[in-house]
Amino acid sequence: MKKYADQNRRFIEFNAGDLVMVKVPDPQLSKSSRGRNSRLMQKYVGPLPIMKRIGTVAYRIELPPWWKIHNVFHVSQLKKYSADREDDARNQSSRPQLELTKTKEKVAEAILNHRVTRTAKREHTEYLVKWKGCSSEENTWEQVTNLKAFLPLVEAYHASQAPRTSLSQVEENVKGRPHTRPLDAHSAAQLLNLADQQPSPTDAGLPQS
């Protein structure tokens, strides 16, 4: 009976790069949640990006390098990330729960790349982080607001991009295509300040989804 029920059930589908909330066993939740009433513990954590689809009903998720759990999840353990939205009735939160701090558990070694991702209400700048003591397979994309403790690395990354920017601009001019200039170190610092000052949808009086 369960086999036929699973066949008739339609699961939501995700694409690589989509942000999702991941349901993990209570023991795997962050240390800050331990010691609380289990009914109040948040069941979903994230947002985390989809890496690829595995088969028909599973996805490989890009997890923080300090999570010692398998990174392939059944689709029933995932839900679409919606910024600044909570489900209090089910003790589930879609607000980001992954805060990066300078501790011996997680130390950024270098910034390798950056990209801009879009949610329904705003854009986010993310950086590809190489973690100290971790292999390149454990590199993760992190939002710029989570890297305040590692701002010198962000600035060093943009400083190293300056020569590449000049070469790419020449190439764009030759091909007749408009050039989009990547962030420099000063712009990155300004972006961090703007992120701190930007009001939430609630503070700004915007309707919440």
Automatic annotation (TrEMBL):
InterPro entries: Chromo-like_dom_sf, Chromo/chromo_shadow_dom, Chromo_domain, SH3_Tf2-1. SUPFAM superfamilies: Chromo domain-like. It comes from the Eukaryota. It holds the Pfam family Chromo. Residues 106-169 form the Chromo domain. Residues 83-102 are annotated as: Disordered. PROSITE patterns: CHROMO_2. This is Chromo domain-containing protein. It comes from Sesamum latifolium. The lineage of its organism: Eukaryota, Viridiplantae, Streptophyta, Embryophyta, Tracheophyta.
